[in-house]
Specification:
The chain contains four helices and two strands, in the order ααββαα. It is mainly alpha-helical and about 150 residues long. The protein has a two-stranded antiparallel ribbon with strand order 1-2. β1 and β2 form a beta hairpin.
């Protein structure tokens, strides 16, 4: 009984339903591509190759009992290329407009980096304080020297 409950939970998941929809649409799309190839592309290719209306009729018979049906292979290659191109376009559109790329947050600085930044700030503050004290001392010395020379 446990197996049945697990199977029911598996079937009711959203991914399973999405997969089923994808298979159904893929089958319908495959039929559409096959019709496009058979009814539109094959007659054009057959016209240029002189093979008639159907690529399946294109074959090479080097010996009496040896036949290479390269027309059927060309037909399958064309079907594959059309399907692959449409899937490529769909993925590009979905990734560009529907699935927004997540913006990565800047990684938090490490503890060592925070400590080093604090030390840098303290040293900069000390240097400013030292510079201010030196400038004040120099100004006071200059004022005393000037006062002494004025006398």
């Amino acid at each position: 009984m446990h197996f049945v409950k697990e199977f029911k939970a598996f079937i009711n998941r959203g991914n399973m339903i999405d997969l089923a929809i994808g298979v159904i649409i893929g089958g319908a799309f495959s039929g559409l591509v096959k019709s496009l190839t058979t009814n539109l592309i094959n007659p054009l290719v057959g016209f240029f190759t002189g093979g008639g209306n159907d690529l399946d009729s294109l074959k090479w018979v080097p010996y009496k009992h040896l036949t290479f049906k390269y027309g059927a292979f060309l037909n399958d290659v064309i079907n594959f290329l059309i399907t692959a191109f449409v899937v490529f376009l769909l993925i590009k559109i979905i990734s560009k407009y529907i699935i927004k790329p997540k913006q990565k947050a800047a990684p938090a600085p490490s503890d060592e980096l925070l400590v080093l930044q604090d030390i840098k700030k303290i040293l900069a503050d000390q240097q400013k304080t030292t510079s201010t004290q030196t400038a004040t001392t120099t100004d006071a010395t200059d004022s005393q020297s000037q006062s002494a020379s004025d006398k």
